[in-house]
Amino acid sequence: MPPHRVPTPDPSQEHAEPEALVPDFLPPELRVPSHDQLDGRMMPWPQPIILDGEIVACAECATYRDWLVLSTDDQVWLRCRAGHQQHEPRLDTAWYNRNAGPADATHATFQDCLRHLGH
Asked: How far is CA 46 from the centre of its chain?
């Protein structure tokens, strides 16, 4: 069995310049805003929402599907196609985060986001 060789340092490398580090951050145009930089988030929810064994319906027009689910200030709100909004205390930010897909856009105003989602 050959003897084990211990590598010896190369004296020419002792005073070599360190390699330049590449920043580990995305360029600004590819960064997604953090939750504290947003006023809220929303996602479409076309199917009925069933909580505690009952279908959630709009308190004003009784529609029960085609919701926009809004998450803001640690609360979840439901918005029907007619534009009525109601707080849903049985849903929370954790529920929203489990069910929301990745954001496909950010918008400067609430109205811009509504238009983007077809409402």
From this structure: 19
d(CA 27, CA 24): 10
What ranges do the domains of the chain cover? 39-101
Q: What pLDDT, in 10s, does the model give residues 83-119? A: 999 999 999 999 999 999 877 777 778 788 788 888 8
- Encoded tokens for 24: 């580990």
| Structure token pair of residue 52 | 């505690």
Q: What is the pTM of this model?
A: 0.67
| DSSP string of 44-83, one letter each residue | EE-S--EETTEE---TTT---SSEEEEEETTEEEEE-TTS
Q: What is the pLDDT of the chain when averaged over all its residues?
A: 82
